[in-house]
Amino acid sequence: MIPVPALIAIAAAAFLIMLFAWITSRESRIRSTLAFIRRLAILALSGLIALRPMTEEHGTDMQLSNLDILFVLDTTLSMWANDGYDDTRIESARNDIEGIMEELPGANFALITFRNESTVVSPFTQDGGTILRYLKSVTVPDRYYVAGSRMDVPYYDIESMLISSDRKENRQTILFFMSDGEDTSTDTTPYSYEELGVLVDGGAVLGYGSDQGGTMIDKYGYTIHSSYSFAEGRSYIDEDNLSEIADELGLEYIHMKRKSAITPIVDDIAELSGTVTENNSDYTYLKDTYYKYVPYLTALLVLELMAGIRSNVRARRKHGGKKVRKEN
Q1: Domain range 62-281, its CATH number among 3.30.160.20, 3.30.70.360, 3.60.15.10, 3.40.50.410
Q2: Backbone angles phi, psi at 38, to 5 degrees
Q3: What is the pLDDT of residue 327?
Q4: Alpha carbon 64 to chain centroid distance?
């Protein structure tokens, strides 16, 4: 509460004043010594309270939102296309994730990204800052190492995360699948998210891009050209793919031409939200303990007040009940 050097200086000055008052006291040695000890205790307790002692506590019951929100973000090269808007597709998706997190505080958030492979960036966590920091660090993939993209690459990671949420009691599992839907893989093996639909309570498939397409710039700052015609490479949104994924998951498909398009979905999710009590054994916090010493300090201050009143009464009786006046 008070900087330690200042506290030491104040305590030292107070101690010297009390010591001087004890040495020069005209009261009996017993009374003056008791007064000195009492005041010394007051000084010690005041200093201790000013230091604000704390103890480290582990584990606590926390009231949390009952929402587990999983973001699945396409980070393939086509998501860096610019369709003539202010932001690239990936930038729009990142902004939408941040907006959803702001609108649904207290939820658990998780993030999966996929290119040629899928990555669980973060399991469900209250630390949304971790997800936001990662999103800011995502960079465009190297054009020389990318392969054809497929929409089912993150299937098994999504399945694992949805099952982990489903095992919890009283949880609502929300999924946001965010992509341009462009599937450029030569592998035509059919895939389906239908089996995962029963594990999802809400969310949406969000589409990014446009029918006119957008050009892409690689990590070196060069516009990507077709290796066959040498024309500027263009990426186009595939809404059929995205609509099919949405149908399989039992979710709504939304073409994200503007951020407000998702507002009704987020409002519906907010209505699903409730609170659950969870014990977080890994949570560590500091608990104030200075208040424990306040009753003792209060008692000593009352004794000091009573001693001062008694001393004044004795002095008045000694002088015949008259106030002592100093003569000029």
Answers
A1: 3.40.50.410
A2: -60, -45
A3: 44
A4: 12
**What pLDDT digit, counting tens, does each position of 262-320 carry?**
999 999 998 877 765 555 555 566 778 888 889 999 999 998 888 888 878 777 877 66
Report helix angle 4-23 to 29-51, nearest 10. Answer: 170
User: For residue range 143-195, what is the model confidence (pLDDT) as tens digits?
Assistant: 655 555 789 999 999 999 999 999 988 889 999 999 999 887 666 665 789 99
Site of tokens 């303990």 = 289
Sheet of 67-74: strands edge to edge? 118-125, 108-114, 67-74, 172-179, 202-207, 252-255
For strand 202-207 and strand 214-215, is the pairing parallel, antiparallel, or unpaired?
unpaired
Please give the C-alpha separations between residue 23 and each of 8, 28, 29, 33, 300, in angstroms, as whole numbers: 22, 11, 9, 9, 21
Token pair in block for residue 238: 């595939």
Q: Which helix (H) or strand (E) holds 152?
A: none
For 300, which DSSP code? H
**Residue 62 and residue 278 in contact, taking contact as beta carbons nearer than 8 Å:** yes
Considering the chain, tell me which residue range(s) the CATH 3.40.50.410 domain(s) occupy. Answer: 62-281
Contact present, 22 and 36 (Cβ < 8 Å): yes
Sorted by sequence, the CB contacts under 8 Å of residue 321 that are 6+ apart come out as none
Whether the pTM exceeds 0.90: the reply is: no
Contact 106, 146 (CB under 8 A): no
Provide the 10 A C-beta neighbour count for residue 256.
20
124 vs 67: CA distance, rounded Å? 10
Helix axes 89-103, 128-137, angle to 10 degrees: 170
